[in-house]
Design a protein that fits this description.
Helices cover 44% and strands 17% of the residues. By secondary structure, it is α+β, with helices and mostly antiparallel strands.
Length: 138
C-alpha cells in the first residue's frame, strides 16, 4: 500500500524482506533540529546521502559483531527463540547474509562511518546514548 502511494524512499528487498524509509522521515532529516535513527544497509545509506541536500549532517554508525562466528551464534540463538510457526533461516540463508555483510563492509568506506564493535552491550549502549555532538567528533 505505501509503495503504491509513493510514500517510500528506496523500497528494495534485502535478505528476502522488503525494506524502505518513509519519505516523511526523510523530510525530518532536512530540519536542523531533528535527530533520526535509521537502521539501514550501507547501500541504502549511500543512496540516502546522495539524495539529500549537502547541508544535512549525518553521523553514520556501523555496529559490528566481533567475529562472524559470534554473529552465527547470535543468529542461531535468535532463531531458537522464534516461534515454531515462524519461518526459520536455513544455514544457506544465514551464510547469504554473511556475504551481504561482507559487501556492506567494503561499501562502508564510501561514507564517514564510526565503527563500533558489539562485544559488550553496555559499551554499545554507552556509545549510542552519548549526545550526537560527541559522536560527530569520533
Amino acid at each position: 500500500m505505501w509503495k503504491r502511494q509513493n510514500l517510500l524512499f528506496n523500497p528494495h528487498k534485502r535478505n528476502g524482506v522488503w525494506h524502505a524509509i518513509l519519505k516523511k522521515d526523510i523530510r525530518k532529516l532536512t530540519d536542523r533540529n531533528s535527530l533520526i535513527f535509521l537502521d539501514k544497509s550501507v547501500s541504502s545509506s549511500i543512496k540516502l546521502k546522495r539524495n539529500l541536500p549537502e547541508k544535512v549532517n549525518f553521523t553514520f554508525i556501523y555496529v559490528l559483531t566481533p567475529t562472524f562466528k559470534e554473529l552465527y551464534i547470535r543468529i542461531l540463538k535468535r532463531e531458537a527463540l522464534g516461534k515454531k510457526s515462524e519461518k526459520h533461516l536455513t544455514k544457506k540463508e544465514i551464510f547469504d547474509r554473511f556475504e551481504e555483510e561482507i559487501k556492506d563492509l567494503h561499501k562502508s568506506t564510501k561514507l564517514p562511518y564510526v565503527y563500533v564493535v558489539n562485544d559488550s552491550l553496555k559499551r554499545v549502549e554507552r556509545f549510542l546514548n552519548k549526545p550526537i555532538q560527541d559522536s560527530k567528533l569520533l
